[in-house]
Amino acid sequence: MKKLLIVSGRSGAGKSSTLHMLEDLGYYCIDNLPVSLLPEIVAKLNAQKNIEMLALGVDVRTPQSDLMQFEDILEQLRQHGEIEVIFLNARDDVLLARYGATRRRHPLTDRYNTIAEALQAEDSLLSGIARHATLTLDTSNLNVHELQHTLSVKMGQNERMILILQSFGYKRGVPLDADFVFDVRHLPNPHWQPELRALTGMDLEVQEFLNGNADVTEMYNDILAFLLKWLPVFAASHRHYLTVAIGCTGGQHRSVYLVNRLADALKAQWPTQTLHRELKYWS
């Protein structure tokens, strides 16, 4: 079997949508099997040699005893080849809003008085899977189409570690899937320049404004030096992805500028992807 994925995550974070997208990409998908049965299922499918890409959905509905053995079961699955674990997450307030809009029942509703309590319990129960995730997706600010785009970007990997540079705005929350977060809100803000307010970090006028500031240059050089030093170390530890998030207030000017500038500096050495989380909010 060439590719084996486990797809898990908190209820309402997009696990089912992700499995549908993987199915469209050619994966054979099986959802909601008890974790303890996965080694047997994978061994049987592997023996048939007619399935090259398999994605297995796992969530909190699996027996709690199985969840507690996830690490051991993962080791058994690795006997059939390299395996990746995709974990879908979102902020509690977003999950509550999604449940309120759809009026769906949370899988743990029968055990807890409120959805908020069920979400907290679920977070704890799935922590063992989240801890072994090779790819975490924060869907708090994504619709289905944006999730599909983000998944396609992050799944487009080769044998080398992919560096994902993401801009974001603090006013909409810190990305839950970032490995490193750099705060650049202390840098001069083009938003306060009337002629630059409607532009973005992709526009030449904003770039020239930021290029001329010593603090911007120093911040860029420090982040670049950090990445140049530590990217080889993370790659040597068999990481598939490393996500570096850079945030300013609105995610439109400073963070976008720095993400693009860093991508230009690093793309010759590392497979690099850029994501601008707040793109849909740009006027």
Automatic annotation (TrEMBL):
It comes from the Bacteria. Gene3D superfamilies: P-loop containing nucleotide triphosphate hydrolases (3.40.50.300). ATP binds at residues 9-16. Residues 3-157 form the RapZ-like N-terminal domain. Keywords: ATP-binding, GTP-binding, Nucleotide-binding. HAMAP family: RapZ_like (MF_00636). This is RNase adapter RapZ.
